[in-house]
Structure formats: C-alpha cells, structure tokens
Amino acid sequence: MNSAHFTSSTGNHAVVVTRVSDTQWHALEDDLVVGRGDASRRPDGRLFISIDAWHGAVFDRIADAMLTDLPTPLYTVADEADQDSTSAWERAGFTAVRREWGYRVPTDPKVTGLGSVRPPSGVTIVPAGEAEEGPLRALDSIVRDEVEAAVGWQTMPAEVLPRPAGTSVLDPSKYTVARHLDRYVGLVRVAPLTRQPRIGLIAVRADRHRRGIARALLAHALGSLHRCGTAAAWAEVNESNAAATALFEGIGARRAGSTVEFVRR
C-alpha cells in the first residue's frame, strides 16, 4: 500500500514514520522500531487511535502521520494520571470530552452493606448463566434505546458498545438478571477476569428506576463473587452519571483511577 513518511531526529539518528498497513504505523530509527501507531474503528463507528512511543518527539511524528492519513473526527483514551500521555495528545490537537472514574468495588457484604438487601416485591434475581437468551437480548435492546435517547450510547464503556448486529450481549452467561413477573427488567454484566472481575454494565429499565432493583442485582453479583473468594471487582463510571456514582460510592467503592476520552474534530 502507499506509505506516508515523516522524518525527524531524536538526537542521534533520523526517525522515519511509515504506514505499514491500513491500521498501523511504525517509527524507525536506524532500522529499529521506536514507536507504533494503531487505529481501530469501534462498533459504534467512531475511529480510535493509539500511539506507543518512548520519546515525545517520536510520538509527535507518529501523530502527524496518522492525522495526515486518517479522516476526522478521531478519538483516543488516556490514563489521566499519565501527564506525559495527556499532554502529548493535547499537543496533537485533541481535546478532552469526557472522563470515566475507575472504582475498586468490595464484595464483602459486611463492607458493602448489601447483605440484607432483597429484591423489591414481585422481583426475582436470575443468577448468571440461567437467563433465557431471547428475553435477555430484548432487555438489552430496550436499555440501549433508553440510554441512546437520554445521554447517547457512546457514553458507555467500550466493552458494552453495541455490535454491528445491534446488540451488546456477546456472552449471556455473564449476565445476572432481575425478573418482574414474566419480564426481564434489569441486568448486571460481570466479566470473570483473572486478576479482578469487571462490572461492565448495570442497567434497569427506565420504568423500574428507584425501586432498589440495581442494588439487589449488585448484592447478588457481589455476594456470589465474595463466596468464591474474590475480594473486589472493578467498575468504570462516567463522571456525569450521578446515579451510578452514588450507587457505587454508597456501597464502599473507592476511586482508583480515571481515564479521559479525547477527540480531534
């Protein structure tokens, strides 16, 4: 394919940035790879880029090449605590548009206070792996439409963005569900990662809000993790989501980091 070349120097040798594929760029110094750039289109259609480079000058050259080759808008995410990274993206013309707080969520009911929490009247909890796939996907569709109408589904973490088929449910076995009579009304998704399980999504139908369903779902999911010997889970919450922030902080979750999403339009 055609390659774009940008040359600079880190002090000893010239650095050449070359587009090696549709989605990858390499920075070479004296025939050694000293930096890489990658581009990927997420399921919601947005184009995200990432750059891995040891030197700020190399980062800037890779960014120049990628910005020349790719259409805008372009998006990226960075650890807010990494000042070098956030400053580099700002130098490249990117602007912060949203922040996600990372929470370490305890599982011990003595800490969360969820040991005595029960589902509201008429609601039962369907454990992970036991939900019927058809009704679960129908609930996912309803929740997605409600989020889109309110704040936009693009505000959700990347792992729960809808796929081209229009669903974010990839593995039904990871979902615990709240059922009211014969209808699913809420869900929580927990990915059983080795180091720390991840709460990827917790959602309740809009017409069932403020009834304690989300707390009951969390009580069940976290209680199950605790009984299996897991001390804590991980969750990410958009800083603008006051309800989710209150829910997690109300059960003893503690902020343990934050990521910032940047865009260049």
UniProtKB/TrEMBL annotation:
Q: Which domain of life is it from?
A: Bacteria
Which InterPro entries does the annotation name? Answer: Acyl_CoA_acyltransferase, GNAT_dom
One Pfam family, please name it.
Acetyltransf_1
Question: Domain N-acetyltransferase spans what residues?
Answer: 123-265
GO MF terms listed in the record are: acyltransferase activity, transferring groups other than amino-acyl groups
Descriptive protein name: Ribosomal-protein-alanine N-acetyltransferase
Species assigned in the record: Streptomyces filipinensis
For this protein's source organism, the top of the classification is: Bacteria, Bacillati, Actinomycetota, Actinomycetes, Kitasatosporales
